[in-house]
Amino acid sequence: MSDAWLAVLLVGASAMLLKAAGPVLVGGRELPPRALQLVSALAPALLAAFVVTGTFASNRSVVLDERALGLAAAAACVWARAPLLVGVVAAALVTALARAV
Amino acid sequence: MNLRPWADPKGGASGFRGGARASIPLCIAVGAFGVSFGVLARANGFGVVAPIVMSLTTFTGASQFATVSILGDGGGLGAAVVAAVLLASRYLPIGLSVAPALSGPAPSRFLQAQMVIDESWAVANRGDGTVERGTLLGAGVALYVSWFLGTVAGVLGGNFLGDPEDFGLDAAFPALFFVLLASQLKSRQQIAAAVLGGAIALACVPFTRAGVPIIAAAFACFAGWWKR
């Protein structure tokens, strides 16, 4: 078997198991209140990490580039109380325009 | 009338169809990156079938890009798998957070869990620690189909779209997460977790492999937890 196929197999099995571990082991059950408090803080923590790495990370360096302008556009849309779609499209448009000039 | 559209950025979308509809703009971005994944995988010696199988099974872009780039650059099988698994490690806490919403027998829960990716999970999150199952599956299936079709197009058709970054599509994902984050900050504990999570991730970027900043940031959910 080639390395490519071995990688597809190993990475695929790992990703599927990581995704399914929680739902298969404890799925369909209500969380105790203490655990729910943790989980309700997990989403903001991870979302903030996605925002920060998706905007300011480039491999192993922290950079300030056109993506920051896109994020600023999304922030302006949140401030203006625009729907989700408008914020996402505005970020892509502003980033594309900034890269084009 | 919805007086607080910012508090419900999906415009009231819920259920399977609502989730699928809410993710249409994302499907465009995800499909475009699927094309570039297909192109990169083909160029890096993965052939035609393996990249498509990978998109159908792994279904998480960051891990797939890491695998094909590291192997293509001669980094070796071990390095490629370790990097990809680190990137996918966030699905352990994410999976735990969606577990209460996924019902049915274990094999069914296993399959439903495969529709969990960052974007479907973020869109389906109610902000109080619970997840809307229909929205999660609707968004997940729509994104899965886009990712698959994009990969097939990239593997077979080559780079007909150009670089998705020229269209700013890479900036669409942090923007999505930012808008959803803004709508979900309701308690002081959540605000603390967001600030701390962002700070931990940023601090880790220069010193760790990709994926580690995210899993390290997950620990920010413990902020203030023990005091309650």
Q: What features would you describe in this structure?
A:
By secondary structure, chain A is mainly alpha-helical. In chain A, 78% of the residues lie in helices and 4% in strands. Chain A has helices at 3-26, 33-56, 66-79, 84-100, and strands spanning 57-58, 61-62. In chain A, strands 1-2 form a two-stranded antiparallel ribbon. Chain B has 228 residues and is mainly alpha-helical. Chain B has helices spanning 15-22, 24-43, 49-57, 61-72, 77-88, 91-98, 106-113, 118-124, 133-157, 172-184, 188-204, 212-218. In chain B, helix 3 packs antiparallel against helix 9 (133-157) and helix 11 packs antiparallel against helix 12. The N and C termini of chain B lie far apart (37 Å). The model of chain B is unreliable at 1-7 (pLDDT under 50). Chains A and B meet through helix 1, helix 2, strand 2, helix 3 and helix 4 of A and helix 2, helix 3, helix 4, helix 5 and helix 6 of B.
Main traits of this protein?
heterodimer; A: 101 residues; mainly alpha; two-stranded antiparallel ribbon; 4% strand; flat; B: 228 residues; 64% helix; disordered N terminus
Q: Describe the biggest sheet of chain A?
A: 2 strands, antiparallel
- What Rg of chain B do the Cα atoms give? 18 Å
Uncertain regions of chain A: pLDDT < 50 for 5+ in a row? none
Mind summarizing the main beta sheet of chain B? Answer: none
Element-level helix/strand string of chain A:
HHEEHH
Helix content of chain B: 55-70%
User: Can you tell me the residue ranges of chain B where pLDDT is under 50 for at least 5 consecutive residues?
Assistant: 1-7
Question: Any idea what the radius of gyration of chain A is?
Answer: 19 Å
Biggest contact: A-B, 80 and 109 residues
- Roughly what fraction of the amino acids of chain B lie in strands? under 5%
Overall 3D form of chain A: flat
- Class computed from helices, strands and strand pairing of chain B: mainly alpha
- Mean pLDDT across residues of chain B: 90
Oligomeric organization of the protein chains: heterodimer
How many strands of chain A?
2
Number of helices of chain A: 4
Query: Could you give the order of the helices and strands of chain B?
Result: HHHHHHHHHHHH
